[in-house]
Write a structure and sequence with these properties.
With 314 residues, this protein is α/β, with parallel strands linked by helices. The protein is built from 16 helices and five strands. The protein has a five-stranded parallel sheet, sandwiched between helices.
């Protein structure tokens, strides 16, 4: 290990790796002045509680060929969890790595605003806790209440604009990462880099399209190769032709697991609470498909994303 070596870390899913990821990898080294980049990546299942489009080893290989110097797996107990748990687990790994000077990620808004939100959530002043408690008493789901309470304290005169910022996917994770860094008293510096190509969208935008848009366009007439580095696209095409990830098979397995699990097994999953296992079990037996189940089960307190995590955790 060379003297005064610097490493920057990126937490990612690369599902699949696209031009925006390659841009962040490149900018991470440039702006942090790091010698090497470590990617901490989800394994075979991602935070949306779905299987990744390619297995973990293949995605790690793509990352190494597109700018990363090392890839570490984020264990599934963290990778299929809420934003705070996802971030907290990843930051635990970052904090154990020697020579890591910066945590880099793509974000959609001003870094100072994101850091302000993270500080409010990490320090939990009385004003913030009171606002959060009141919103929860009013029946607001925890994640939404957290966002509203943060905006209320951070920017009461322009709350709606702040709420809009805090509801963007990359910003949600950016705040969670910074919050985890503060809470763990980490010396690693937080370095958000503006995403190229604008805000995340499920609509395909050409050269700089989101991973969600690319996944949604697979199998259509859209040429997704324009939005991905050649090595990444070639690998994706090879994997999809030789061993495609089947949504139908995964959905059938998920519903089978729910129907066969005991109420106790469902209740023990990290995201289940408040006796919700009874409703999950009842609807898993009654509904004919996983999609039908997911449409029937969400409530104001249990969002579709949380339900999907409970299913995969089961």
């Amino acid at each position: 290990m060379k003297k005064n070596m610097k490493i920057c870390a990126v937490i990612c899913e690369l599902n699949p790796l696209h031009n925006g990821h390659e841009y962040i990898f490149r900018k991470a080294k440039e702006q942090s002045g790091a010698d090497y980049l470590v990617a901490i990546m989800s394994g075979n299942f991602v935070q949306r509680a779905e299987p990744a489009v390619m297995d973990e080893n293949t995605r790690a290989e793509v990352a190494l060929n597109c700018g990363a110097d090392m890839v570490l797996e984020l264990p599934i107990v963290y990778s299929v969890a809420s934003a705070d748990k996802f971030a907290g687990g990843a930051i635990k790994i970052v904090n154990t790595l020697p020579c890591v000077s910066h945590l880099v990620m793509g974000a959609e808004d001003n870094a100072q605003l994101l850091e302000r939100a993270a500080e409010i959530q990490a320090k939990e002043c009385d004003e913030f806790k009171n606002a959060l408690r009141q919103l929860l008493r009013d029946g607001m789901p925890y994640a939404k209440a957290l966002t509203h309470a943060t905006a209320e304290i951070a920017c009461p005169e322009n709350k709606n604009e702040y709420l809009s910022m805090l509801n963007k996917p990359n910003n949600i994770l950016a705040v969670a990462y910074k919050k985890a860094l503060i809470s763990s008293k980490s010396k690693v510096k937080f370095l958000p880099i503006p995403r190229i190509g604008g805000e995340i969208s499920v609509n395909f935008k050409g050269e700089y399209s989101s991973a969600s848009a690319i996944r949604a366009s697979i199998g259509s007439d859209v040429d997704v190769s324009v939005s991905m580095p050649k090595y990444s696209y070639d690998t994706l095409a090879r994997e999809l032709s030789s061993r495609p990830v089947s949504k139908e098979k995964f959905d059938a397995l998920a519903l089978f697991a729910l129907r066969n699990a005991s109420l106790g097994e469902i209740a023990e999953t990290p995201d289940c609470a408040e006796g919700f296992e009874h409703k999950i079990k009842e609807l898993a037996i009654k509904t004919a498909s996983y999609d039908e189940f997911l449409s029937a089960v969400p409530t104001s307190r249990f969002t579709k994303g949380r339900i999907m995590r409970i299913c995969l955790q089961t």
